[in-house]
Design brief:
about 240 residues, alpha/beta, Cobalt-precorrin-4 Transmethylase, domain 1, Methyltransferase, Cobalt-precorrin-4 Transmethylase, Domain 2, 2 domains, five-stranded parallel β-sheet, five-stranded mixed β-sheet, about 20% strand
Length: about 240
């Protein structure tokens, strides 16, 4: 009977200038693998190239996992692991399976009896929570909120209510070109006492983090967050 390969969950840097945040042992494992599952093969190749790979790209296989991938295609991505080959799962940025479509591959691996090996790396969710000074015992990540201002304001008020009710930090993310809309809406919508944090360009040389009350945010000029990777969190007062 053929021994199955393993599925290695390989974290990727949060920006082009933060490859140094990926531990050496992750890079070593990356260089040992021939088969990768990634949201975009182009991004995966770009990351691997910056790690000084020991194998030529012609020797590597990439499977793309995104909204165009059919369930039938996805179900074949671990056939190599069934045949005894180790496979690497790469996120676009951060940790695979966390706010990432790779969770479907991890679930498939468990169903197929393939060993899953998570490796250490950066997570913008945890980094902003760490830097916020908000409740790290109770927190909830909501992914993306509505792109429409009216709906966004409604959802922010709901998060504020949940935070106040459960004393829970609420974390969410946004597409970089809508960051300014999120910040402006939050400052107009939330209670003056609610704490609000923005973490921008995390782990990169231009990293910027601010965590303060809505009242204090409104005393200063708005920062320019447009088209910069950002993640947000809030915590309401009782």
């Amino acid at each position: 009977m053929i021994k199955k390969g393993k599925l290695y969950l390989l974290p990727a840097p949060l920006g082009d200038e933060s490859v140094h945040t990926i531990p050496t042992y992750v890079i070593e494992r990356l260089h040992q693998l021939d088969i990768f599952i990634a949201e975009r093969a182009k991004t995966a190749r770009h990351f691997i190239k910056r790690t000084d790979p020991v194998k030529p790209f012609a020797a590597l296989t990439f499977y793309e996992l995104n909204k165009r991938t059919t369930p039938a295609q996805r179900n074949t991505f671990l056939d190599d692991a069934d045949a005894g080959k180790d496979v690497g799962l790469l996120s676009e940025a951060g940790c695979p399976g966390v706010a990432d479509p790779g969770a479907a591959i991890v679930e498939l691996a468990h169903r197929k009896g393939i060993e899953v090996v998570p490796l250490v790396g950066p997570s913008s969710i945890l980094l902003v929570l760490m830097a916020s000074g908000m409740n790290g015992q109770r927190f909830c990540f909501h992914g993306y909120l509505s792109p429409k201002r009216n709906e966004l304001a409604k959802e922010l008020r709901q998060l504020e209510q949940e935070s106040r009710r459960h004393q829970q930090t609420q974390i969410f993310i946004e597409t970089p070109y809508r960051n300014q809309q999120v910040l402006e809406t939050a400052l107009k919508t939330l209670d003056a006492r609610t704490r609000f944090c923005a973490g921008v360009d995390l782990t990169n040389p231009t990293e910027w983090i601010r965590s303060s009350s809505i009242y204090d945010w409104n005393q200063e000029p708005l920062p320019d967050l447009h088209k910069r990777p950002a993640i947000f969190c809030l915590q309401a007062k009782k």
